[in-house]
Amino acid sequence: MGSIFFILFILNDFKNVSVTFDLLNEGLTTSASTPAVDWDGVHVFLRYQSEESLYYASINRRDNKVIIKKKVPGGSSNGGTYYNLSTLNSSSVSYGSWQKVKASVKDNSDGSVTIQLFANDKLVASATDNGSVGGAPIRNQGKVGIRADNTNAKFKNFTVTSI
């Protein structure tokens, strides 16, 4: 059976933060209602304003890639449009082994926003949103969370730290 679950903090005051957690990916799943897609995996939400406005970093994807994206209002994907902010980098999934995941977001003095994704203390994706893709950077504080699509995953030690 396919699975989708979502953890989102109710607090709406996370701005320049790093999110860390331990991730155990026990394998990917599918079902008739949730068929396999390349982006199945784990997604860390940063500066979540709404379902249509957020940054996210994807790791442990079905296609063995990592990427950082921005979603903005207006479009056919649940009321929004996704924009790639980083390149689609290769990163193999370590099934059955605990991994340390870290995602960070911070404002820069020039008005841009930098998002980084780490796996086991190694930088695997980085992007700076200067507004040239998908409109202005998301500079407002927001929520943080995790979503897993078609992934049998366990999480522990979820921590949010100001940077």
From TrEMBL:
<dbReference type="GO" id="GO:0016787">
    <property type="term" value="F:hydrolase activity"/>
</dbReference>
<feature type="domain" description="3-keto-alpha-glucoside-1,2-lyase/3-keto-2-hydroxy-glucal hydratase">
    <location>
        <begin position="44"/>
        <end position="160"/>
    </location>
</feature>
<dbReference type="InterPro" id="IPR010496">
    <property type="entry name" value="AL/BT2_dom"/>
</dbReference>
<dbReference type="Pfam" id="PF06439">
    <property type="entry name" value="3keto-disac_hyd"/>
</dbReference>
<protein>
    <recommendedName>
        <fullName>3-keto-alpha-glucoside-1,2-lyase/3-keto-2-hydroxy-glucal hydratase domain-containing protein</fullName>
    </recommendedName>
</protein>
